[in-house]
């Protein structure tokens, strides 16, 4: 089980860093890069990795996770389950970057904002029915039934100042799918360790340390300034690191890791909580991009299984991912509650069986379909899609590729305008319910497959309120069994992340691939 | 012809012919996805350690035989360059002949337009046209029409050069006595242009086309290198060089090196051929001892 190792490795490097932090070091600037910028600074508009990571430097949530993915207090100092909900004690004396005082009203406002129709956290917070503020430093979240994992669901729900939001006219989250522009998209006012200084999307985002931050002195990090410059071209990122123009590359190309190590740089790697998979639109009457009219090949379970058996996941690992991936048959990696070695096992690579299944379903001659693919989001995403074309062609599925930057790919998935698409999914709550809710449940915000299974919908609804953990585990197990059998998706692999940094930078690698600058130390 | 020229033409001509006949010459059909195996990916050239027959120049990241992919890619580059040059030539000749023969305000407007475009670098215009064409295409057609769109973009970027040459030649031709004679006999204007002016304009235009053809091939490679030309599923030389350049740090030099060498050979050969053609068309030169 790779996940336990990560925890140990991360904990080890953390301990090493704490020792280093004991030596007072001058405040430093971290210049870092990755392939694609945050999509927006509105903290509730996009539930998406790089966006959360960047906004999470400026804004804070009630509860957060440290680099070992353990829950830690942030704006709440303590929390407990009470009858019908959860009670949070808030941190006193906290101010926003604009000078406004932080209290329970801001929490109530932000949670309601994150439950608005244009928020991307709607499903995640669906169990909350009411937000109460008995006093300025207490918040009670009433839930529609007992919700044992509510704190886990709040780790990325960032808190805004209610007064600022009203003054800026951003009381509702940006409608990202329709490309709305609001004042909260390029400006930010949080309570976090870093203050936004400059924001030029896709070019430069500069942050400076918040001198009034509550956590000053409590964390090892010694950064005074952060400069983030996205670089789309992978070779450019590596060249920038080797030339000393940046201190850290979040997503170095896997094929270049040996070269980076040879140059004396630090390379850290860890299994990521992110699974890459293909979605198949089985809900539509016919596919938009197919030559099969009148019926939808993906509507047939045998076709979806055929796609799963046609993919040689080990070849993708060895030849596309440079060995850095874990082939899988599940939508969430080991380490997430509900993932087991049995349901994680990939569908066997068997092109003969795939052809037989297609013939059985009436597609002996195969069919055409377009695969929509991002080219700037996941490790080697473009190459994965290119590698899939010949594999699917071998069983008769003629795939044309549409490679697009994620800013155009994601709306396509969210608006359900795609027949066949590649997507990755992280599980910040470390619980299967999150994945089932978003990807598998009928109406899930990122379920673009149209998969709608009665029993599964029942199970998903029931597990959100089930407090008997053994019964809840049984529900999760049954749900994954149905997903495996019905195959609405073709899971490919769990991503392995690798960070490359200059030798004087100590940045603890985080399995959610988010840079946590409060832990980053730059040595003289 | 000088021996250096012969060598250069041969250097360009042989690979060019191999590219044009790629479907019959290439050992593998790299566009048939069912023939590829990912397990053959990133093999080095056959003489290097780890390389093996029949992948003489190695394979790319998708397990495509690099030699075959290059030949098909070179063919695509040559065809795009031909189409683009033909488009530029046709458009430029039309504008230039009309401007040169008509004179007056029409001449002024058309030539100022050409000059404005000439002040912009050709590749910039090509990127602009290409971007517009792609934005207007429906997403499904984007990949299928990427190659025609590239040819269109390059053609639209080099017409002013043809127009200027055509105008200069047409202005001279239009003042010849036989044109005046034709006018007196009452021939319609378009027939005079077609029958009496155009033949005199054709020779300098064709010479210019020979010079611009390799430049069009390089423009295609540039667009593809920037990711704007041929898609990775049907790579041109530029696409291959782009994909190969991402593997340079990893030590997989062959994916970028061989297509680059082929592109240089093709461009050199075409340039040498154009030079020879220009020399023959130049009356001053033939008059020399």
Helices and strands in order:
The complex is a heterodimer of chains A (524) and B (289).
Chain A: H1 2-22, E1 28-33, H2 49-58, E2 63-65, E3 71-73, E4 76-82, E5 85-90, H3 104-113, E6 128-135, E7 138-143, H4 150-153, H5 162-168, H6 183-186, E8 194-200, E9 204-209, E10 223-228, H7 234-242, E11 248-249, H8 257-262, E12 266-280, H9 301-310, H10 313-320, E13 325-327, H11 341-344, H12 351-360, E14 367-374, H13 381-394, E15 397-404, H14 406-414, E16 420-426, H15 432-440, H16 454-463, H17 469-486, E17 489-501, E18 505-506, E19 521-522
Parallel strand pairs in A: 1-10, 1-11, 14-15
Antiparallel strand pairs in A: 2-3, 4-5, 5-7, 6-7, 8-9, 9-10, 11-17, 12-16, 12-17, 13-17, 18-19
Helix pairs in contact in A: 9-12, 15-16, 15-17, 16-17
Chain B: H1 3-20, H2 22-25, H3 66-102, H4 104-119, H5 122-136, H6 139-144, H7 146-174, H8 177-184, H9 189-225, H10 237-245, H11 254-281, H12 283-287
Provide a descriptive summary of the structure in words.
In chain A, strands 1, 8, 9, 10, 11, 12, 13, 16 and 17 form a 9-stranded mixed beta sheet that branches. A 4-stranded antiparallel beta sheet of chain A has the order 4-5-7-6, with helices on one face. A two-stranded antiparallel ribbon of chain A has the order 2-3. Chain A has helices spanning 2-22, 49-58, 104-113, 150-153, 162-168, 183-186, 234-242, 257-262, 301-310, 313-320, 341-344, 351-360, 381-394, 406-414, 432-440, 454-463, 469-486; strands at residues 28-33, 63-65, 71-73, 76-82, 85-90, 128-135, 138-143, 194-200, 204-209, 223-228, 248-249, 266-280, 325-327, 367-374, 397-404, 420-426, 489-501, 505-506, 521-522. Chain A has 524 residues and is an alpha+beta fold. Chain A has 2 domains: 3-265 and 502-522, Periplasmic binding protein-like II (D-Maltodextrin-Binding Protein, domain 2, 3-Layer(aba) Sandwich); 271-496, Dipeptide-binding Protein, Domain 3 (Dipeptide-binding Protein, domain 3), CATH 3.10.105. The longest helix of chain A has 21 residues, at 2-22. In chain A, strand 2 (63-65) and strand 3 (71-73) form a beta hairpin. Helices cover 31% and strands 23% of the residues of chain A. Chain B has 289 residues and is mainly alpha-helical. Chain B has one domain: MetI-like fold, CATH 1.10.3720.10. In chain B, 73% of the residues lie in helices and 0% in strands. Chain B is built from 12 helices and no strands. Chain B has helices at 3-20, 22-25, 66-102, 104-119, 122-136, 139-144, 146-174, 177-184, 189-225, 237-245, 254-281, 283-287. Chain B is elongated. Chain B starts with a helix and ends with a helix. The relative contact order of chain B is 0.15. The mean pLDDT of chain B is 86. Chain A binds chain B through residues 233-235, 238, 253, 255-256, 258-259, 288-289, 312, 315-316, 318-320, 370, 382-383, 386-387, 389-394, 398-403, and chain B through 32-39, 41-42, 61-63, 139-140, 142-144, 231-233, 245-252. Chain A: One of its GO terms (cellular component) is ATP-binding cassette (ABC) transporter complex. Chain A: Its main location: periplasm.
């Amino acid at each position: 089980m790779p996940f336990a190792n990560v925890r140990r490795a991360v904990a080890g490097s953390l301990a090493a860093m704490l020792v280093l932090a004991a030596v007072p070091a001058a405040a430093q600037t971290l210049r870092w890069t990755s392939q694609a910028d945050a999509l927006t600074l509105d903290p509730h508009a996009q539930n998406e990795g790089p966006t959360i990571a960047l906004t999470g430097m400026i804004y804070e949530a009630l509860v957060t996770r440290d680099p070992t993915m353990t829950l830690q207090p942030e704006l709440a100092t303590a929390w407990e389950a009470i009858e019908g909900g959860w009670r949070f004690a808030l941190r006193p004396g906290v101010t926003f970057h604009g000078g406004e005082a932080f209290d329970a009203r801001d929490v109530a406002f932000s949670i309601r904002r994150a439950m608005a129709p244009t928020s991307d956290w709607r499903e995640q917070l669906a169990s909350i029915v009411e937000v109460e503020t008995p006093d300025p430093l207490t918040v009670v979240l009433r839930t529609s039934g007992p919700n044992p994992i509510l704190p886990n669901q709040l780790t990325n729900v960032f808190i805004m100042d209610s007064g600022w939001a009203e003054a800026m006219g951003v009381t509702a989250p940006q409608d990202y799918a329709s490309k709305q522009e609001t004042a909260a998209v390029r400006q930010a006012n949080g309570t976090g360790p870093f203050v936004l200084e400059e924001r030029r999307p896709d070019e430069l985002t500069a942050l400076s340390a918040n001198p009034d931050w509550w956590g000053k002195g409590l964390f090892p990090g010694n950064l005074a300034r952060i400069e983030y410059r996205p670089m789309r071209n992978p070779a450019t990122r590596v060249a920038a690191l080797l030339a000393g123009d940046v201190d850290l590359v979040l997503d170095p190309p896997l094929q270049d890791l040996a070269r980076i190590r040879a140059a004396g740089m630090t390379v850290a790697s860890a299994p990521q909580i992110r699974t890459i998979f293909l979605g198949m639109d089985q809900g539509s009457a016919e596919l938009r991009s197919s030559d099969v009219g009148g019926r939808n090949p993906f509507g047939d379970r045998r076709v979806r299984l055929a796609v799963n058996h046609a993919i040689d996941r080990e070849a993708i690992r060895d030849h596309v991912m440079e060995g850095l991936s874990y082939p899988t048959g599940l939508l969430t990696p080991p380490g997430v509650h509900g993932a087991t070695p049995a349901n994680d096992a990939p569908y066997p690579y068997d092109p003969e069986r795939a052809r037989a299944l297609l013939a059985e379903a009436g597609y002996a001659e195969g069919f055409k379909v377009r695969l929509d693919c991002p080219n700037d989001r996941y490790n080697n995403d473009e190459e994965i899609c290119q590698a899939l074309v010949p594999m699917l062609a071998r069983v008769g599925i003629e795939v044309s590729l549409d490679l697009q930057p994620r800013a155009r790919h994601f709306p396509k998935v969210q608006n359900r305008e795609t027949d066949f698409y590649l997507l990755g999914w992280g599980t910040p709550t470390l619980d299967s319910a999150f994945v089932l809710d978003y990807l598998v449940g009928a109406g899930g915000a990122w379920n673009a497959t149209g998969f709608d299974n009665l029993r599964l919908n029942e199970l998903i609804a029931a597990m959100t309120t089930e407090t008997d953990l053994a019964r809840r585990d049984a529900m999760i197990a049954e749900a994954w069994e149905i997903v495996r059998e019905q195959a609405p998706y073709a899971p490919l692999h769990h991503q392995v992340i690798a960070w490359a940094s200059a030798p004087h930078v100590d940045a603890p690698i985080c399995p959610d691939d988010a840079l946590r600058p409060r832990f980053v130390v730059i040595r003289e | 012809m000088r021996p250096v020229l012969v060598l250069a033409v041969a250097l360009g001509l042989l690979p060019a012919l191999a590219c044009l006949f790629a479907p019959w010459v290439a050992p593998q059909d790299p566009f048939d996805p069912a023939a590829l195996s990912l397990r053959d990916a990133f093999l080095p050239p056959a003489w290097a350690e780890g390389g093996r027959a029949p992948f003489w120049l190695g394979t790319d990241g998708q397990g495509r035989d690099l030699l075959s992919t290059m030949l098909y890619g070179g063919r695509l580059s040559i065809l795009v360059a031909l189409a683009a040059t033909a488009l530029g030539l046709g458009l430029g000749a039309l504008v230039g002949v009309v401007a040169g023969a008509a004179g007056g305000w029409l001449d002024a407007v058309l030539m100022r337009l050409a000059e404005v475009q000439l002040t912009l670098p050709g590749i910039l215009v090509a990127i602009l046209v290409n971007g517009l064409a792609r934005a207007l295409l429906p997403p499904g057609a984007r990949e299928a029409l990427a190659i025609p769109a590239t040819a269109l973009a390059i053609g639209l970027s080099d017409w002013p050069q043809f127009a200027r040459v055509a105008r200069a030649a047409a202005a001279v031709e239009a003042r010849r006595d036989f044109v005046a004679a034709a006018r007196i006999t009452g021939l319609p204007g378009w027939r005079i242009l077609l029958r009496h002016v155009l033949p005199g304009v054709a020779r300098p235009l064709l010479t210019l086309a020979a010079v611009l053809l390799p430049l069009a091939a390089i423009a295609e490679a540039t667009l593809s290198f920037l990711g704007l030309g041929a898609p990775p599923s049907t790579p041109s030389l530029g696409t291959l060089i782009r994909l190969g350049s991402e593997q340079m740090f990893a030590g997989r030099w062959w994916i970028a090196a061989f297509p680059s060498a082929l592109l240089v050979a093709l461009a050199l050969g075409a340039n040498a051929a154009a030079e020879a053609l220009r020399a023959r068309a130049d009356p001053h030169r033939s008059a020399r001892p």
